Amino acid sequence: MTALVQTIPTPDGPLTILVDEAQRVLASGWTDDQAAIIARVHPALRPTAVAEGETDAAHAARAYYDGDLQAIYAVVVRQRGTVLQAAGWDALRRIEPGRPLSYSQFAVALGSPQAVRAAASICARNAPALFVPCHRVLRSDGSLGGFAWGLPVKLSLLARERGEI
Fold first, then answer.
1. Is position 134 annotated as part of the catalytic site?
2. Where do the structural domains in the chain lie, given as residue ranges?
3. 2-74 adopts what CATH topology?
4. Residue 156: pLDDT band with limits 50, 70, 90
5. What pTM value is reported for the model?
6. CA torsion, points 98, 102, 103, 104, in degrees to nearest 10?
7. The one catalytic residue among 19, 127, 134, 153
8. What's the average model confidence in pLDDT over 132-153?
9. Which of these, 46, 54, 103, 142, has the minimum number of CB atoms within 10 Å of its CB?
10. Would you say 29 and 16 are in contact if contact means Cβ atoms under 8 Å apart?
11. Sheet strands (E) in 9-148
């Protein structure tokens, strides 16, 4: 499979987006290191070749940064994981901008209130960051927790979604 990759500037640094032939986002993140993005893709979905090109997802990311926080939902993503992971990634897309959940609340939203560690793992294994907004899940005490692309990016995304930026 040949994939397209595009890196765009954002206020949070370069955002690199990897899409398949159908323009579904396989992975994305705030880096210009294409190898780091490709490494986040499940091995069964990892492309055999990558070319640079314009992606539909880049238009949505630009719209998001221009204030249309709903633009990312028009983008189709493709991930591979367990049934619980797939349900979790779907649930992440239902978290409203500016209304983050704690890992405990996210576990409840998954229908597994005791699965707090699994909820955290779902976020950690999320490859198409921004388009599946795992940054909207926080620790129970309201602190940021982790984020693959750095806490300053997570903090900025949350502030943007609260209308502070």
1. yes
2. 2-74, 83-161
3. Double Stranded RNA Binding Domain (3.30.160)
4. very high
5. 0.94
6. -140
7. 134
8. 93
9. 142
10. yes
11. 15-19, 25-29, 49-52, 101-102, 137-138
